[in-house]
Amino acid sequence: MPEIIRKVRNSAAATRFAVEANLSLFADVPSNPSVRRKKLFDELASSPVKEPLNREEDLYTKFLSILEKRQITNPLQERNPYWLPNTPYSIGDVVGTCAQFTDQHGAPLPKTTLPPGEDVEKFIEKVLKEPEPVTIDQQFDMLLDITGNNVIGAANLGMIATRYISRFADQRAYPSLTIEGKEYTQETSDEEVGEMITKWNSKIARFKTYTDSEQNDGIGDGYYFWTHVFAGMALSVDSPQAKAMQTVFERGTELMVFVKYKIARRKGDVLPHFEASKLGRAIGLSLAEQAKENVVTTSSS
């Protein structure tokens, strides 16, 4: 197939994926995992909040220290998916994947934003083996181990892995994953899935929040954080489409909440995840800016 035809077809497929994924935000299907398991998510979000917590004031400095320790001077030196080194990220794939779980629409799966299943398993098991809750900067360190210091790939893998294990709503993309010796498929019972989600909730550090809500959805905050880190970096390319999508993601969480609750009147999510989203976006954009300067320094240098 001529290269130009292949590129046109891939672009069309990615655009269709992005459109269908975003349109599915208007639907509230009772069988969707995020709706069906809402009672469990509410219970976990209402459980006591314990240290350690992810705090805004020192998180970016911790990220920079990890990069410095690993001698990564350009966070976006590798801009392609780490498992597809010769293929650039598709903007449509990025937007569609960040917008919605793959189980909540029927669009053809994206080609550039779904890391290998074995890496998803590897990261999840790394976290589950830790004796104490794992903070988001510790997760970053683990992710870089798996992606071979590919920073954008670390955020991509972080988004997909934490989203999978927190909601089990991307099983169309990963029809079979084995975690701690147990295979998880779409046929796995809700009880067994709930037990794993509950365990994951106990293994990750929650975010420090500054609202009056008595709930703290740590597992949801985790994948929202990584989603916005990934989008901030992946869309930091010099193209009109990417720049337009950056503008959308600037208010992405607010727009999604408006569409889901004010227009579609959906009931799936526990909390809007504003703090984690804004923090993730700030870090993603800052890392992209560091890449432009090609110099990474800590705040003390």
Short description:
The chain has one domain.
Written overview of the protein:
The protein is mostly helical and 301 residues long. The chain has one domain. The protein has 13 helices and four strands. It has helices at 3-23, 33-36, 38-45, 56-69, 91-99, 117-129, 136-147, 151-167, 190-203, 218-234, 240-250, 252-263, 274-293, and strands at residues 53-54, 177-179, 182-184, 206-207. Strands 1-4 form a two-stranded parallel sheet. It has a two-stranded antiparallel ribbon with strand order 2-3. Helix 5 (91-99) packs antiparallel against helix 10 (218-234). It is globular. Residues 258-265 and 295-301 have low confidence and may be disordered.
SSE arrangement:
Blueprint: H1 3-23, H2 33-36, H3 38-45, E1 53-54, H4 56-69, H5 91-99, H6 117-129, H7 136-147, H8 151-167, E2 177-179, E3 182-184, H9 190-203, E4 206-207, H10 218-234, H11 240-250, H12 252-263, H13 274-293
Parallel strand pairs: 1-4
Antiparallel strand pairs: 2-3
* Major sheet details: 2 strands, parallel
In total, the number of domains comes to 1
User: How would you classify the helix and strand content by structural class?
Assistant: mainly alpha
Q: State the strand order across the main sheet.
A: 1-4
Strand content: under 5%
